[in-house]
Amino acid sequence: MASAAFPAAASRARASAVFASSFASVGSSARFFSSFLRASRPRLNATTPVATKALERNVPMKEILQPLWVIEPPNFLRQPVWKQFWEAQFANRSFFFFGNAWTSAAAFALFIWWSRVFDPPPKERLDRYWLNSPKFRILSAFHNPGKRPGLKISLMTYEARYCYRGLDHPFTLNEVKDFLFKLREQYLVNKYEGIQFPFVFRQFNRVSTPGTLEVHTAPALQQQPHFHEHSGDAEHH
């Protein structure tokens, strides 16, 4: 009788162990989902009744929803991130930024950050690319509507070379002529409102013209006799 009861007790023990493990996983998932429930409902004490009263103000959303500081992703491996990253270095075809795991992408991002290839340039190298880039010119035109920042860009180039790189003669002869040309255009634009292309390199895309546009053409050329037409008459006279 005892020998027959032993396997039954063992099966009951295994069943209880499986039930305990499943209950633990359900409990962990319940704790995980309860964290989301905390983000979508206020915490109320069920034992104390809450007296209802009429609303006297608008209740803002931050008093109804209280989200956590960040979305909690599930950690199925039950290991810290540093341990997952360390063990992935010894997995097959995965080392630092070589491989196709998430650790490879993270290591590649870390390497890019460490290499400083995308850092902004120092001031002594601003004129090498940034001050001549289309992005800088578009941003300069966008943040200075109706103005002409070309002269200021030339002065910034001079400053980067003279003050930060230490060049005593920062401008070549062509750059000096370009600076003087921009200075002349700046003076004309500030002095004469609405001045356009024939005098400066500027064109307006919205120009108001009168309803009746008078076009003054040049007078027609008077017809002159050809020099061969009256040559015979000249001989008779």
TrEMBL record:
Keywords: Membrane, Transmembrane, Transmembrane helix
Top-rank taxon: Eukaryota
Transmembrane segments: 95-115
This protein's name: Transmembrane protein
